[in-house]
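[recover] target loaded
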């Protein structure tokens, strides 16, 4: 019997070209795909682009209501380009990875001003903010039928198992090799050339619904006839686990500053966590929680607050955000508040728009706070 190493050595792009039956894969996709608002016979490139951006780091079921709300408010690229950034960010609130929303908004403005709409040309798409290799290939293949493969975590898992080749997500050399194999396969297979977007979506759908990270449903998989990992019962060996990344721990004190029935919110600076989002004022870079009250007093002094009645810890939550574990504690601050125009924040000096405002407490859930803050202010 051949060893696994020998098996790995013979499975490459030629195996893929000869053994992966595209017609069977597409038949399965047409029958079993989830019906989603951005999937259509003639897909709307704006919908495809938005869905692909929203789906990065986010599951379909979690993202779908956001997509529907976004499209209802901004039905076209022109509506998005004309929107206030704060409104775009508010509709994105809760999805995380907020740079995606800022890039989309900026890209929409560029498209409208330079191309009077969605550009036809792939080069123009590739220059837009937030459009990397994955997004470009997804939009161009699905909306414009160009034979460009996509490579995400689902596709890598399916390929690693189908070929029984130990690929690792995030390993540049592995991803580069697989991109090359997929590109070669896409250029030479007439069934793919006829429907490249469907093939890409089929592979991603297969990875999301059947060839899952654990307990893949091989007996109902359309690729099982030629899948090397299934044949040798080694699906649990592929792909290789991701390299462990170091999670940085950070402490942030969020301030619940109340005046009558109003609460103070501010727009965050462009750089850093929750960039340009509306949030509660914060004291960041705390080494210990013991420092928090003094640091809060310092911030209030910068704002010109002269009378503080009380600073009280009222709630705590922890979140994992892109390699960071955020320990977020909510402090209620009772003080004699000066006029808004005298409230200044170091965190927002570089932004031209009004930074701080009092809003009615009843609007705190809908003002566009990131999810971490929504958890903190719930039922207060
Ligand atoms: S047969 Fe199993 S391991 Fe192979 S591609 Fe299908 S679900 Fe994945």
């Amino acid at each position: 019997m051949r060893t696994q190493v020998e098996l790995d050595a013979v499975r490459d792009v030629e195996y893929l070209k000869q053994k992966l039956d595209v017609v069977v894969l597409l038949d399965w996709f047409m029958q079993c795909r989830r019906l989603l608002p951005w999937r259509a016979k003639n897909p709307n490139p704006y919908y495809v682009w938005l869905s692909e951006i929203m789906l990065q780091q986010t599951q379909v079921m979690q993202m779908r209501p956001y997509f529907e709300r976004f499209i209802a408010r901004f039905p076209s690229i022109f509506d998005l380009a004309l929107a206030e950034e704060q409104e775009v960010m508010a509709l994105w609130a809760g999805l995380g990875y907020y740079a995606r929303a800022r890039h989309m908004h900026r890209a929409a403005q560029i498209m409208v001003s330079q191309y009077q709409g969605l550009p036809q040309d792939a080069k123009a798409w590739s220059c837009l903010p937030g459009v990397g290799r994955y997004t470009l290939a997804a939009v161009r293949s699905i909306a414009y039928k160009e034979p460009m493969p996509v490579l995400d975590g689902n596709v890598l898992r399916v390929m690693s198992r189908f070929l029984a080749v130990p690929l690792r997500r995030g390993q540049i050399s592995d991803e580069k090799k697989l991109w090359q194999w997929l590109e070669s396969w896409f250029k030479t297979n007439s069934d793919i050339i006829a429907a490249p977007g469907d093939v890409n979506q089929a592979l991603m759908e297969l990875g999301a619904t059947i060839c899952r990270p654990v307990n893949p449903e091989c007996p109902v998989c359309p690729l099982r006839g030629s899948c090397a990992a299934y044949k040798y019962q080694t699906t649990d060996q592929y792909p290789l686990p991701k390299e462990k990344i170091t999670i940085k721990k950070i402490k942030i004190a969020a301030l619940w500053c109340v005046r009558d029935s109003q609460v103070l919110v501010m727009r965050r600076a462009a750089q850093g966590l929750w960039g340009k989002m509306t949030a509660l004022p914060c004291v960041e870079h705390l080494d210990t929680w013991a420092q928090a009250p003094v640091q809060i007093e310092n911030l209030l002094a910068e704002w010109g607050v002269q009378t503080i009645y009380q600073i009280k810890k009222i709630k705590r939550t922890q979140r994992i955000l892109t390699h960071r574990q955020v320990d977020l504690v909510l402090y209620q601050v009772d003080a004699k508040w000066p006029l808004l125009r005298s409230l200044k924040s170091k965190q927002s000096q570089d932004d031209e728009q009004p930074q701080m405002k009092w809003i009615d407490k009843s609007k705190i859930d809908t003002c566009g706070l990131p999810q971490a803050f929504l958890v903190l202010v719930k039922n207060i």
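[recover] notes: The chain has two domains: 4-237, 248-377.
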